[in-house]
Amino acid sequence: ALISLRQLLDHAAEHGYGVPAFNINSMEQLLAIMHAARRTDAPVIVQASRGARAYAGDLMLRRMVEAAVEMFPEIPVCLHQDHGNSPATCLSAIQHGFTSVMMDGSLEEDAKTPAAYDYNVAVTRNVVELAHAVGVSVEGELGCLGSLESGQGETEDGHGAEGRLERSQLLTDPDEAAAFVAATKVDALAVAIGTSHGAYKFSRRPTGDILAMDVVKAIHAKLPNTHLVMHGSSSVPQELQDIFNEAGGEMPQTWGVPVEEIREGIRFGVRKVNIDTDCRIAMAGQIRKVAREKRGEFDPRNFMKPAMAALEKLCAERFEQFGTAGHA
Ligand code: G3H
Ligand code: 13P
Ligand code: NA
Ligand code: ZN
User: Fold this and answer.
1) Can you state which reaction this protein catalyses (predicted)?
2) pLDDT cut 70: percent of the chain above it
3) What's the pLDDT score for residue 155?
4) Nearest Cα residue to 274 out of 229, 227, 224, 211
5) What is the pLDDT of residues 206-239, one digit of tens each?
6) Which residues contact 297 (CB under 8 A, 6 or more apart)?
7) Measured from the CB, is residue 39 less than 6 Å from ligand 1?
8) Which of 32, 51, 63, 81 has the most CB atoms around its CB within 10 Å?
9) Ligand nearest to the CA of 189
10) For the chain, how are helix, strand and coil distributed in percent, rounded to 5?
11) Catalytic residue at 58?
């Protein structure tokens, strides 16, 4: 059945597990995720970005997810709007059957000005009122996703005197988080702890100075009953980088968020873990491999089948690692 994020994350909190939220744009991605969920008996969060909605079309996405729910009747599925940039985006998602929306009021955030915080509270509160009236959940975000190594927030550039944000300007402030949740009544809160979107998060295996798991713990101490969300949580496994590069790809050496750190977060209130980049690299590596090894191949299914198998394997691993397995 289709369920809300709140229903799923309340269950996850009660039983101490986390749920990966995988981005989808296509039938192949959705099927691979669902097969992994069936294999591990895990509930599912699939999320669509604005780009995904434009790529597949709202009606196609909705009908695809409805079909998945019918094909896999034993698996609870939450359909979530990833990084909604406005109330209008969130409302059109709700009209198209999404059971959860992210109102990302931090996208507009200009470092940490009082006006930016007030805007974020107002716009998030507005979406919560509308969404809750129809049983849809809301994720908010406070803080600025972005690298502590470069000091660049994702929506910023050329900030501050040296064009660099301080650690305290990028990371979510625990006291502010408590005030934000009280003011907005969000169902889940995305926190900024030094992760960023995409493949190039860290230039070395991250340690506490660049991946601030201590901030997760401090926020959880203030908000023990709030479901926390980690964005930018691909692990960018070495194995997937190697497959991609051995098949002729050119991906410079990079480091993501180690699964062990995510598991530590799950012990401290993290319930939703956003993963897109790992899924992309898993699929793209196999597509490259077929293109390189079978130069006469032109049936797209013979590119997509190994890509789907690699994605299914990745998703099943995360369901096991985050403790989602067995909870469908
Ligand atoms: O937040 C970023 C997600 O990885 C979605 O990316 O906007 O390219 O679909 P996208
Ligand atoms: P990654 O780029 O690390 O997969 O993060 C995805 C994400 O946060 C989507 O909202
Ligand atoms: Na999201
Ligand atoms: Zn994100």
Assistant:
1) beta-D-fructose 1,6-bisphosphate = D-glyceraldehyde 3-phosphate + dihydroxyacetone phosphate
2) 96
3) 61
4) 229
5) 999 999 999 999 999 999 999 999 999 999 999 9
6) 290, 291, 303
7) no
8) 81
9) 3
10) 50, 15, 40
11) no
What atom of ligand 2 comes closest to residue 275's alpha carbon? 4
The dihedral built from the CA positions of residue 80, 138, 265 and 112, taken in this order, carries a sign that is: positive
Residue whose structure tokens are 């997810």:
65
Please work out, in degrees rounded to the nearest 5, the angle formed at the alpha carbon of residue 123 by the alpha carbons of 121 and 126: 105
Q: Mutate which of 29, 49, 200 to test ligand 1's pocket (most atoms within 8 Å of Cβ)?
A: 49
Site to probe by mutation for ligand 1, drawn from 46, 61, 82, 196 as the one with most ligand atoms within 8 Å of Cβ, is 82
- Respond yes or no on whether ipTM tops 0.85: yes
Classified by CATH at the fold level, domain 5-321 comes out as TIM Barrel (3.20.20)
Q: Is the dihedral of CA 21, 25, 26, 27 positive or negative?
A: positive
In angstroms, the CA 281 to CA 265 distance is 24
The stretch 90-96 carries a mean pLDDT of 98
Report residue 162's pLDDT band, with 50, 70 and 90 as the boundaries: low
